[in-house]
């Protein structure tokens, strides 16, 4: 009987010590471990991601910003794309946060109220703030040649007028080649580093998103980054990138 009691006590103490050590490890490293000291959650890029193009297409948020009706929005809607249209830039914070996965941007007549360079000013600013943002420039055949270098910032270019099939090929190609989880995981890590987030807290963010994927829930990034003060725009970008990443896994 004494041997049984000693065994139970020994196991209980060992379990308690192991529990405390895993909590201390998480506190100091930001990485969770199981009871058997294996990583609790997989690295984001080791998670199995969605690979069905039709489903990814439905999840890709597209915004067309064009002061004319030259873009066949209704046809794209009928074909199952998630697409909206603005005649001019209406909600710049939404664009900055990365809410839209693909921005089709007219370079004239859509942003004179916020930039003297019109759509090109928007293109340059968005790419500087978020290089992972996918932007298609949408323009007439002729444009000022001294602005050519700015067009090179775009992920692709569509010339007005273009028919549905030509535009579809461009958008589908970008979804297939650039709308990928690794692009946004890298963008999230770069954003965190640029804002001087410690490696420990970066691991916590990745762990929180990975946990959300495993449990099929939303990550609580506001809590994870609760130590960040007066950076609401930064937090919006983090949450937006996280939401984009989740599209590939949930």
What does this structure look like?
- The chain is α/β, with parallel strands linked by helices and 250 residues long.
- It folds into 3 domains: 38 residues; 117 residues, Response regulator (Rossmann fold, 3-Layer(aba) Sandwich); 67 residues.
- Helices cover 51% and strands 10% of the residues.
- β4, α6 and β5 form a beta-alpha-beta unit.
- The protein is globular.
- The mean pLDDT is 83.
Task: Please give the structural blueprint.
Layout: H1 2-29, H2 53-59, E1 61-65, H3 73-78, E2 82-86, H4 92-97, E3 102-106, H5 118-129, E4 134-139, H6 148-151, E5 156-159, H7 164-177, H8 181-194, H9 199-215, H10 221-224, H11 232-247
Helix pairs in contact: 8-11
Instruction: Report the CATH architecture of the largest domain.
Output: 3-Layer(aba) Sandwich
Tally of extended strands? 5
Sheet with most strands: 5 strands, parallel
Parts with pLDDT < 50 across at least 5 consecutive residues: none
Question: CATH superfamily membership of the largest domain, which one?
Answer: Response regulator
How many domains is the backbone divided into?
A: 3
Gap between N and C termini, in Å? 51 Å
What number is the mean pLDDT? 83
Beta-strand content bin: 5-15%
Strand line-up in the sheet with most strands:
2-1-3-4-5
User: What structural class should be given to the helix and strand makeup?
Assistant: alpha/beta
CATH topology of the largest domain: Rossmann fold
C-alpha geometry: globular
Assign a percent range to the helix content: 40-55%
Q: Which H/E pattern describes the elements?
A: HHEHEHEHEHEHHHHH
């Amino acid at each position: 009987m004494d041997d049984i009691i000693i065994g139970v006590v020994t196991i209980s103490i060992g379990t308690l010590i192991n529990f405390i050590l895993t909590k201390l490890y998480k506190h100091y490293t930001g990485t969770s471990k199981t009871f058997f000291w294996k990583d609790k959650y997989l690295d984001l890029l080791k998670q199995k991601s969605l690979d069905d193009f039709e489903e990814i297409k439905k999840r890709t948020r597209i915004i067309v910003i064009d002061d004319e009706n030259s873009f066949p929005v209704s046809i794209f809607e009928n074909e199952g794309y998630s697409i909206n249209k603005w005649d001019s830039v209406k909600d710049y914070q939404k664009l900055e946060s990365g809410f839209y996965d693909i921005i089709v941007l007219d370079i004239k007549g859509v942003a004179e109220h916020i930039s003297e360079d019109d759509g090109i000013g928007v293109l340059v600013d968005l790419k500087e703030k978020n290089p992972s943002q996918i932007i298609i420039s949408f323009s007439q055949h002729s444009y000022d040649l001294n602005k050519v270098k700015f067009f090179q910032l775009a992920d692709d270019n569509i010339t007005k007028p273009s028919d549905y099939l030509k535009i579809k090929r461009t958008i589908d190609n970008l979804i297939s080649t650039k709308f990928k989880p690794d692009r946004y995981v890298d963008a999230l890590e770069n954003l965190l580093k640029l804002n001087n987030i410690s490696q420990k807290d970066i691991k916590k963010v990745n762990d929180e998103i990975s946990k959300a994927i495993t449990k099929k829930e939303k990550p609580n990034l506001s809590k994870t980054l609760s130590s960040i003060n007066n950076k609401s725009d930064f937090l919006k970008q983090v949450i937006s990138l996280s939401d984009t990443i989740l599209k590939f896994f949930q």
